[in-house]
Amino acid sequence: MDPATTFGYVETTTPQHILLFRLLIAALFGAMIGFEREARSNGAGLRTHILIATAACLFTLLTFEIYHLSDVIGSGNADPIRAVEATTAGIAFLGAGAIFQQRGNVRGLTTGAGMWLAGAVGVATALGYYLVAFAVSLFVVLVLVGLRAFARRVGDSDDDEETASSAESEAQTPKSKGT
Fold first, then answer.
1. Whole-number Å distance between alpha carbons of 82 and 60
2. Do 24 and 15 touch, CB atoms closer than 8 A?
3. 58, exposed or middle or buried, with CB in 10 Å at 0-12, 13-18, 19+?
4. Does residue 6 lie in a domain region?
5. In degrees rounded to 5, what are phi and psi of residue 13?
6. φ/ψ bin of 176: left (φ > 0), alpha (ψ from -120 to 50), beta (otherwise)
7. In the beta sheet, which residues pair with residue 102?
8. From CA 170, how far away is CA 37, in angstroms rounded?
9. pLDDT in tens, 110-169
10. Is 33 helix (H, G, I), strand (E, B) or coil?
11. Structurally, how many domains does the chain consist of?
């Protein structure tokens, strides 16, 4: 008996070095998105986005391994889209936790959207769509950084930092007793 199988090693359809490479790439793309959030001192920053993208990638890789295993076993009942849907729902739950309302202002919406997108980047990376995942990660960073100034000029307050700043300045502004 092979020593590896004694310890539960299972041969994968996709070579394991490719699986590990895809996980690493997903982590790097998650870091691209999370870096901007970290630089702005938002709650979900570098580590959170890396973990989300890597987890989404791992769930997707495992989904397809299970799908191929069901073909080998002969059950043929595996539905990989269910696992992708479950991964998306889990990430949406995390994103929703980052969003909250305070004094009529919604905070964390951009962070929640970034978390959700980091999960999608992880799924794309798991499927081997490296160029697409990279392009989306780069696009997200450009949107987060590039449109911040535009959002301030227009007065849109869906940005996490801006809403937080306006709430802080509102709390720090002394109010006269007559008003």
1. 10
2. no
3. middle
4. no
5. -65, -50
6. beta
7. 105
8. 23
9. 788 888 888 888 888 888 888 988 999 998 888 888 877 776 777 655 555 444 444 444
10. helix
11. 1
For residue 32, what are the domain limits?
14-166
CA–CA distance, 108 with 154 (Å, rounded to integer): 19
Residue 3 lies in a domain: no
Question: What is the number of other CB atoms lying within 10 angstroms of the CB of residue 62?
Answer: 16
- Whether 14 has a pLDDT exceeding 50, the answer reads yes
Across 91-119, average pLDDT: 79
Q: Does some domain include residue 153? A: yes
Please report, as a single letter, which amino acid is at residue 70.
S
Pairing status of strand 100-102 against strand 105-107 = antiparallel
Tokens of 73: 């076993």
101: β partners: 106
Residue 159 DSSP code: S
Q: 153-174 in b/e burial notation, b at 16+ Cβ within 10 A?
A: eeeebebbbbbbeebeeeeeee
- Has residue 173 been placed in a domain? no
pLDDT tens figures, 45-92: 788 888 888 988 988 888 888 787 776 666 667 677 787 788 888 888
Region of 79 please: left (phi>0), alpha (psi -120 to 50) or beta. beta
